[in-house]
Specification:
By secondary structure, this protein is mainly beta. The chain has one domain. 0% of the residues lie in helices and 28% in strands. It is built from no helices and 5 strands. A hairpin with a 5-residue loop joins strand 3 and strand 4.
């Protein structure tokens, strides 16, 4: 799984969360005790990641949970185009991800 030549990258965010972010104090899925139990779930990016052509609001797939040496929780994510081809694989802090909501609609955009 993943795009040839893709690298994992750590980055910091300056975006404002919409109040549904994954954090060390809770889970996107209240009935899930472990962050790794939510692997392969679809989430929303809460920040632009220009080096990977990602924008806030893009749908991402959670691949793995990890903790940085400084204790910051993060996740490896994979991003697909509308045909299902991988376009990016990267790591983001937990605060960069939001749960999907029932009152939201998926849409497509050009890269």
């Amino acid at each position: 799984m993943g795009m040839p030549g893709a690298t994992l990258a750590q980055f910091s965010l300056k975006g404002v969360s919409r109040g549904r972010s994954v954090s060390s104090g809770g889970s996107l899925f209240p009935d899930v005790k472990s962050p790794t139990a939510a692997r392969f779930s679809h989430l929303i990016s809460d920040a632009d990641v220009p080096e990977h052509r990602l924008r806030r609001g893009d749908i991402v797939k959670l691949v793995d949970h990890h903790v940085a040496p400084d204790g910051t929780e993060g996740y490896s994510i994979e991003v697909f185009n509308t045909l299902g081809d991988t376009i990016a694989v990267t790591s983001v802090p937990a605060s960069a991800l939001e749960a999907l909501r029932q009152d939201e609609v998926l849409c497509a955009r050009t890269l």
